[in-house]
Amino acid sequence: MRSNRQVIGTVALIAALSGGLVACGPEEDAAGGSSSGPSTAAKPSTSAPAGGAKADPAGSGGGGNDCGKPPTPPAGVKIVEVGLHRDVSVFEAMDAQPKCTPNDWIYHGEGEPKGYKLPATVKGELATGPGKFQKVNRDELSMHIDGCLSQEHRNIKEPFSCHGNIYEITLDAKGEVQTMRERWSV
Question: Is the pTM of the predicted complex or chain greater than 0.85?
Fold first, then answer.
């Protein structure tokens, strides 16, 4: 026979877990006077997100969470997540795809990484805030990438900071990076 402590602990655990399920149910309908009681708490919400988009609770980029249509970069611009920085002139990156979050679209690299050459003539820009950028040369760009990848954020000096290693790049006819602009994010 179980002790009273075990029974009380089990009941408390069940109560705590079932209390969290109430937040997952449909929203209260204040105008209609109904509320989400225990009988409706575990049912999935049947209301469609704003804008008529289909629900996408996993945030897989399908348009849920009120994100709307996924953003598309301008022609010739590729969005990548840098994953490896070999030296000042070479890095590896994966193509980054937009993912819907409760706040907005964010980018994550997917697939196999690809090597890119970063020539001395690259036109680099690092984010200094939303919609604000500062031009940098290849060495400054390379040091920034290296500092962010290695989590050595103390090496990143103001006005710069790390923003998930997501960059917009353009390539020349040889496949070398012409421009590389850091994407700002919170």
Answer: no
